[in-house]
């Protein structure tokens, strides 16, 4: 590995809209809101931004291709703007562009912004997947949906670890209950109510064995980060947040094309975690990570991520979940903002939304949800399916 | 010697009891009431997919490269112009240097194609021809045709070597008989009075063809082990046989009560069921019906003993069934009602036909690749080996998955993704011999799905783009039928 990104770049401002079904707002409104908050938070002016990276996934339902939607909406003064798309990790990918731009020395201050307007399709769930996976795959893929492909992982996991569907679903229910408990305290979350295990277990099935409360919502939203050289960060604020690691791993295709993968974990998460921990100098993640926001698109995803990140031993995440290890009072609070479960998942905004929570927690600004004295926060942003995916990890600290 | 070398049948899994149709459509005339059940093609099946299924059964154990031709008989082609035989040929991964033809527009097209294929072989123009006959017959809701019409397919491999039933002659009569017809834009047949078709057609043409064949071959009814012809009028079937001089033990069960009238495939399907129970030396006559009649004489050879019980013909398919208890679902499967698909259901991306052409062997033929370096089979076809310990570039040879069995690696039943028959079940499949890919699962319910369940492949309609007039054919997974 090269030198890595560790401590070279700092976050000096962030913004995040309320996530939800914004029938009265378009992408442009969401972009302006997230940007205005980030700019104010950093205490800089628009002209100080030297380059920008814009993440959006479903351009066809959203604002169109290219970086023009961001530049035109914010009237960015002919600076370099790049649009990035890497499925559900598009927001993290925008951050990566901005951070690498600054780390290279090319720019002092850069903007990363992710926005997604999903609720213009006319139906529930994500936009129909066959529209977006290519001319050949749409012929030779089965009629999949996002809940379905993750449900397949749940069936594999239950089978491998000898759980009945009922047992497995009860473990998964605790994951969703935890997120809702946190989300209920977050005014920016889409779903702000407490739920019970029984609510989860009684909910209608979406893709067996996953029910409605095993699935994250679909919402509109935007989030933004302003990053700068670490050595100048304190000129802007006393508590900048440093990027300790920024890693991404992409499937080689062997999970679905070869027969080695056993379907109970996400290969790319494990691969990217090894690199991120090395980059951040973390030896024992279970001891050193203070808190995290993982990509809980579905309850099962959160469960296997605990294991893939090396927090819980293989097959043992259940014990940690049942012990309250990931609750806000636990050893590593997970989803302190409510997670995708309560925020919903405006694709390209989610990665930056997770970072927004870690950033505010590190600065002691998380209000009712404040975790005591966190040192290191981790975000995990997964795009695609367990069978083929894009995984981005960001580790931040003061 | 020329004749039948192999056979394969196919009946869709679903059956509907005719009482369900009768109860659904109360104004049916008592006189046209028919007992028993009929086959129902699933929503993702059509004449092409069922022809492929029968042909796969027929070709099991036979070298596909040896084929010189492929004929399809159907009155229910999904296309007005685009030859189905060519789609089937590509799907079966046959070589391109073959002759193909679609025989159509009459239910006797099955026997017409049979005679054409045998004559072609007899003339020395081909050594081997694969014949498929397949129909999804749709009757107007409430009509007597709806009770009678059924869905199914038959396939015969015709050739010179390893003949199990040699062709000894044929006799045809042709009439422009207007008992029923379908024109541009008609979804279902129009027909003249039922008695007219029965008395002026069925009762006359079939005896004319069979008697003509007997006298042409200097044979008498007593020489024939089984006489085989469609039984769309069950009572007349028995009396016709009697009138022609056949005893009851010479009459092949017409399967009307358990299968129904499968159109062009019908005479060939009952021929197959006769062959399944035949013995060397048996002489059988099969006759088709529609715009006249064709009658063909076969003599069963010693070779029949080698295939008996080995082939997937008709008998086991008749036993392998699941009842469809909803008449409304039957109507929806045949596109006779249009249930809500939602905006998601309408969100179908365009099909790149140049891609379908370029990757035809991969998409229609389900051919992937196998790495020459490490031996890993992989789908879809790859240029760079997927085995992480290999990664060889351009060391691939074609590898056909369509005839491989496999087991379920993981699965789900999805209520979000659109399917005309929810829930949509799909699974990742590990193939016997290596290779993994994911497919829709059809002819199956969630309750019977489990990890490790043995499965096989079935060619189906993967999607239909009504706006573009495109049927997206691909392979799905099904539980082992038997």
Task: Give a brief rundown of this model.
The complex is a heterodimer of chains A (398) and B (482). Chain A has 398 residues and is an alpha/beta fold.
Describe this structure in words.
The complex is a heterodimer of chains A (398) and B (482). With 398 residues, chain A is α/β, with parallel strands linked by helices. Chain A folds into two domains: 9-123 and 221-235, Thiolase/Chalcone synthase (Peroxisomal Thiolase, Chain A, domain 1, 3-Layer(aba) Sandwich), CATH 3.40.47; 139-214 and 243-397, Peroxisomal Thiolase, Chain A, domain 1. In chain A, 35% of the residues lie in helices and 18% in strands. Chain A is built from 14 helices and eleven strands. Chain A has helices at 27-42, 68-74, 90-103, 137-140, 146-160, 165-183, 197-202, 254-257, 267-280, 285-288, 299-308, 317-322, 339-343, 347-362, and strands at 9-16, 51-55, 81-84, 109-116, 205-207, 210-211, 221-229, 241-250, 291-293, 376-385, 388-397. Chain A has a nine-stranded mixed β-sheet with strand order 3-2-4-7-1-8-11-10-9, sandwiched between helices. Chain A has a two-stranded antiparallel sheet with strand order 5-6. In chain A, helix 2 (68-74) links the parallel strand 2 and strand 3 (81-84). In chain A, helix 1 crosses helix 2, helix 3 (90-103) crosses helix 14 (347-362) and helix 6 crosses helix 11 (299-308). Chain A is globular, with a radius of gyration of 19 Å. The two termini of chain A are 24 Å apart. In chain B, 26% of the residues lie in helices and 28% in strands. In chain B, helix 6 packs parallel to helix 7 (234-244). Chain B is of the alpha+beta class. Chain B starts with a strand and ends with a strand. Chain B has two domains: 3-333, Peroxisomal Thiolase, Chain A, domain 1, CATH 3.40.47; 342-366 and 401-479, OB fold (Dihydrolipoamide Acetyltransferase, E2P). In chain B, strands 5-4-6-7-1-8-13-12-11 form a nine-stranded mixed β-sheet, with helices on both faces. Chains A and B meet through helix 4, helix 5, strand 5 and helix 8 of A and helix 12, strand 18, strand 19, strand 20 and strand 22 of B.
């Amino acid at each position: 590995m090269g030198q890595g990104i560790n401590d070279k770049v700092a976050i000096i401002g962030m913004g995040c809209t309320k996530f939800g079904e914004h029938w009265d707002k378009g992408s442009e409104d969401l972009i302006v809101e997230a940007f205005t908050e980030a700019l104010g938070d950093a205490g800089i002016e628009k002209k100080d931004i030297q380059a920008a990276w814009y993440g959006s996934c479903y351009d066809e339902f959203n604002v169109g291709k290219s970086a023009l939607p961001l530049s035109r909406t914010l009237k960015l003064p002919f600076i370099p703007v790049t649009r990035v798309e890497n499925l559900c990790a598009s927001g993290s990918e925008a951050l990566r562009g901005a951070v690498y731009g600054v780390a290279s020395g090319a720019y002092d201050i850069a903007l990363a912004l992710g926005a997604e307007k999903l609720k213009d399709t006319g139906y529930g769930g994500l936009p129909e997947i066959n529209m977006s996976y290519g001319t050949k795959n749409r012929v030779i893929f089965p009629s999949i949906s996002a809940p379905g492909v993750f449900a397949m992982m749940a069936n594999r996991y239950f089978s491998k670890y000898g759980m009945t569907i009922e047992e497995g679903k009860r473990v998964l229910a605790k994951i969703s209950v935890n997120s809702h408990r946190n989300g209920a305290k977050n005014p920016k979350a889409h779903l702000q109510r407490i739920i019970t295990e029984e609510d989860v277990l009684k909910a209608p099935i979406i893709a067996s064995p996953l029910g409605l409360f095993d699935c994250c919502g679909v919402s509109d939203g935007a989030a933004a980060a302003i990053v700068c050289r670490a050595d100048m960060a304190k000129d802007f604020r006393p508590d900048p947040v440093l990027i300790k690691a920024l890693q991404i791993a992409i499937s080689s295709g062997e999970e679905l094309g070869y027969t080695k993968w056993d379907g109970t974990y996400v290969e790319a998460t494990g691969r990217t975690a090894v690199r991120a921990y090395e980059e951040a100098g973390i030896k024992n993640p279970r001891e050193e990570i203070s808190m995290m926001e993982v990509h809980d698109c579905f309850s099962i995803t959160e469960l296997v991520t605990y294991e893939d990140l090396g927090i819980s031993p293989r097959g043992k995440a259940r014990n940690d979940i049942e012990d309250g290890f990931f609750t806000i009072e636990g050893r590593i609070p997970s989803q302190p903002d409510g997670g995708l479960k309560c925020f919903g998942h405006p694709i390209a905004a989610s990665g930056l939304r997770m970072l927004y929570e870690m950033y505010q927690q590190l600065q002691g600004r998380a209000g009712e949800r404040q975790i005591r004295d966190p040192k290191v926060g981790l975000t995990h942003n997964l795009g695609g399916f367990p069978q083929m995916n894009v995984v981005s990890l960001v580790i931040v600290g003061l | 010697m020329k004749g039948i070398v192999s056979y394969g049948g196919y009946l869709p899994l679903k059956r509907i009891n005719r009482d369900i149709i009768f109860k659904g459509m109360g104004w049916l005339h008592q006189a046209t009431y028919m007992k028993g059940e009929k086959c129902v093609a699933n929503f993702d099946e059509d004449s092409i997919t069922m022809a492929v299924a029968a042909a796969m059964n027929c070709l099991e154990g036979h070298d596909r490269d040896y084929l010189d031709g492929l004929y399809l008989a159907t009155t229910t082609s999904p296309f007005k112009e685009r030859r189905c035989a060519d789609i089937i040929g590509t799907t079966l991964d046959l070589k391109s240097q073959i002759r193909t033809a679609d025989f159509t527009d009459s239910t006797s097209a099955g026997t017409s194609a049979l005679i054409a294929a045998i004559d072609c072989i007899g003339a020395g123009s081909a050594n081997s021809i694969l014949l498929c006959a397949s129909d999804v017959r749709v009757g107007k809701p409430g009509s007597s045709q709806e009770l009678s019409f059924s869905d199914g397919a038959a396939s015969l491999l015709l050739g010179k070597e390893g003949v199990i039933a040699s062709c000894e002659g044929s006799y045809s009569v042709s009439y422009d008989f207007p008992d029923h017809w379908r024109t541009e834009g008609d979804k279902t047949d129009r027909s003249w009075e039922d008695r007219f078709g029965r008395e002026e057609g069925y009762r006359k043409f079939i005896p004319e063809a069979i008697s003509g064949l007997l006298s042409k071959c200097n044979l008498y009814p007593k020489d024939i082990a089984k006489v085989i012809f469609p039984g769309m009028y069950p009572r007349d079937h028995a009396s016709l046989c009697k009138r022609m001089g056949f005893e009851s033990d010479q009459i092949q069960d017409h399967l009307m009560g358990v299968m129904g009238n499968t159109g062009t495939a019908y005479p060939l399907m009952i021929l197959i069921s006769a062959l399944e129970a035949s013995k060397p030396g048996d002489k059988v006559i099969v006759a088709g019906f529609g715009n006249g009649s064709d009658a063909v004489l076969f003599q069963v050879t010693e070779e029949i003993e080698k295939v008996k019980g080995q082939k997937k013909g008709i008998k086991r398919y008749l036993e392998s069934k699941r009842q469809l208890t909803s008449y409304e679902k039957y109507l929806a499967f045949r596109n006779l009602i249009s249930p809500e698909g939602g905006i998601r259901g309408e969100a179908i991306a365009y099909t790149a036909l140049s891609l379908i052409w370029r990757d035809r062997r991969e998409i229609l033929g389900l051919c992937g690749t196998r790495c020459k370096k490490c031996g890993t089979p992989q789908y879809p076809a790859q240029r760079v080996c997927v085995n992480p310990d290999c990664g060889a570039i351009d060391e691939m040879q074609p590898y056909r998955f369509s005839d491989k069995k496999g087991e379920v690696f993981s699965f789900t039943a999805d209520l979000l993704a659109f399917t005309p028959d929810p829930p949509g079940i799909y699974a990742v499949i590990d193939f016997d011999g290596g290779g993994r890919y994911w497919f829709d699962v059809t002819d199956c319910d969630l309750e019977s799905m489990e990890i490790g369940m043995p499965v096989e492949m079935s060619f189906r309609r993967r999607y239909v783009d009504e706006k573009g007039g495109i049927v997206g054919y691909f392979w799905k997974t099904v539980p082992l039928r038997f």
